[in-house]
Structures are given as structure tokens and as C-alpha cells.
């Protein structure tokens, strides 16, 4: 090779830019899809809660510190017969968001009562009541209501903040 000859680098910058653009588009679409999913599962219910008159709202204690999560073991229940009349089952698992570490330990200690309340609530449902996103949001509200009831007579209500479904199979 002579000293006055120039060596050109292979051109690949255009394909790298294309890959970066494609990745950026995929990430943006993924974020938009996640936002839409959150809106359909929680946004509608949150909007309805904000529309309530302040006098009707309960004064809830704000949790201090990071949220605490308590997984509830999966279980299966028989659902009420639908119009077709056949047997249907719900296999469900969820995680509870509770008001703090002390509340988490209280709910753990009363897990038999939690599971009993859930079996009674879930076995009263029909598949058509809970197979839509709106039905699942309503079910989560009902679970929160059931689990906020005191475990002991004249006891303090539990601080159950949210129900996060981790498995939901209707068969």
C-alpha cells in the first residue's frame, strides 16, 4: 500500500441508525400498551373514586414508607352455574398491597380467615361476572372490602390498599 492511498472504513452507520430507530419505536409502543392496560384495569375505577363527593369518602390512613406486598397462595373455587348450567371453576392467585410491615404480619397471622372470606366471595360469582376487565376491577374492590373487615370482633380494620391478580383462570 502506498503512503498517499486512503483507506475507507466500511459504511454501516445507516443500518445502526435504523436498528436504533426500530428499538425506540418498539419501546414507545410497549410503554403506550402498558399505559393503556393500566388505564383499563385501574384508571376507570380511580376516576370513579375521584368523582365521589368528599363527604362520602372515608378518611384512610396514608401508609408510611414503601408499600408492603403479601402474596396469597393460589386456590380453586367452583363458580355459580351460568346460563349454560355446566360446572365452571376459577383458579386464582393474587398479591395484597397492605399498609405496612405490621399490617402484613397481621394479615399473615390471619391467613386462614383471609382464604375463608375469599372462598365465600369467589364461590358466589358467575364466570360472566368476572371474565371482563371491568368485572375483575369490581372483584378487586369487593376483595378489598371483605379483607378490610376486622379479623376480631370490635377490632381495627385492616389496611388493604390494593389487590394485584397474579393468576386468573376460568375453566
UniProtKB/TrEMBL annotation:
Pfam families: FliL (PF03748). Keywords: Cell inner membrane, Cell membrane, Cell projection, Chemotaxis, Cilium, Flagellar rotation, Flagellum, Membrane, Transmembrane, Transmembrane helix. InterPro entries: FliL. The chain crosses the membrane at residues 18-41. It is a single-pass membrane protein. It is found in: Cell inner membrane; Cell membrane. GO terms for biological process: bacterial-type flagellum-dependent swarming motility; chemotaxis. GO terms for cellular component: bacterial-type flagellum basal body; plasma membrane. The keyword Heme does not apply. Controls the rotational direction of flagella during chemotaxis. Belongs to the FliL family. PANTHER family: FLAGELLAR PROTEIN FLIL (PTHR35091:SF2). This is Flagellar protein FliL. It comes from Duganella radicis. The gene is fliL.
